[in-house]
Design a protein that fits this description.
heterodimer; A: 382 residues; alpha+beta; 7-stranded antiparallel sheet; 14 helices; 12 strands; 34% helix; B: 97 residues
Amino acid sequence: MQRLVLSCCMVASLLGAREAAAACPAGVTWPAADWPEALAEGPTVAAADEYLFTLTGRDEDREGIRTDGVVIVHRGRVIYERYARGYAQHNRHLAWSVSKSFLNAMVGVGVGRGALTVDDSICDHYDADGELCDITVGDLLDWGSGIDWNEGYEDDPYYLSSVIAMLYGIGSGDMAAFVAAQGLAEAPGTIYRYSSGDTVLLSAVLASALGSDLADDYPWEFIFDPIGMQSAMFERDQVGTYVGSSYVYATPRDLARFGYLFLRDGCWDGQQIVPEGWVAASTQPNPSFQMGNSYEHFLRDGDAVPGRHWWLNLPVPDLAHERRWPAAPPDTFAGLGHWGQTIFVVPSADLVLVRTADDRESGFDQNRYLELALTLAAEDSP
Amino acid sequence: MTRRALPVLVALALAACNAEAYDNNDAELAVRQKAKEMCSCLFVMELTEQECAAWTRVSPNVAKATIDRQNKRVHAVALGFWAADARFDGRHGCVHD
């Protein structure tokens, strides 16, 4: 019953967001073949250079801050751009889990086309059965499937990590089948647990819902091509499922296009790419998280508040948890990836930040980075 | 103990330690990680071999890669026993064979 109430709230929220959403904005700058530039100068630029691009540890030991690229877009123009450590403007960078936010957008387009709904059982589209049929598309978007999963990385024992087994081990042939075979640890929709497995299963569900005509091409047809991400690559497993958890690659400038799509509420140059209301619904605390059964995982991970495959800068009063990035406004949301990959979107400041990196330690201060970027934006003359 | 015997004993110990949870040992995971991520680093991210060696280094650092640039393939081996391959597939990047 509690789940039903929340589901109804989400539907109402989505409808409300639809009513509130304006048509595609007029009078804003859109990148054509490339981004317009209005590169900033001055002491804040120097401070950003120093903080973002000064190696603070032994590079050969992969210590300290190791930024590979930064692109900051304010009011549709690049105001800051730097590369380091062998990277240049043309190099694609692995987005790691920022890829999950891309899959969110692709599911949104699929929903907009009527191929699936967030309330569909995964069994409406994917060859699963039994208890797994209680999982909805929305549960997967919320990382709330309840599937038994250990999202451990290189700092944890490899043999216990579900995600390492999926990417490189016994699950790497058919990753979605591997995820489904893990079974449920909790009832679907009752608990939030960050899981690359949920995302990969969602990718397989989406492909099945779209059918064979689109299963190969949908990332380009839905997102990459309409917003001009010419550098984009998206890797698949051996049975052809896009590894939506991990394997989108693009240049930082093209990653900024994706952030800009969400900054503009799913619009691109007058065209509604992601359905109206999808961005708003994806950037609210997700229903599985709101059930309150997952705070232990949340506190342990120290993450931002989970939306639907995006991360939010909201407080959690029940936990006396302040905003993850206090220097940034509460409407800030982000795609976050391993080793420091980030796309930040700050609607109230008309700002998109992309950082690619190889941070093998956790010493990078995202809050300071946001503070510097917001200062650059404030200094950017209209 | 000879230098040749040590890696084999390490591998056997790893395999024995990893008998529960997922049925992979660290050497097998490392070799598959090396093949796939080296392929992606070289042919998707377009970095140098030296840069990609650093990007793909894991612990235990037992996997060695052989690169076929003409066919855009990477073959990785570990401890003379485990092996894996990955190939570049255009806009779909790299995938294990």
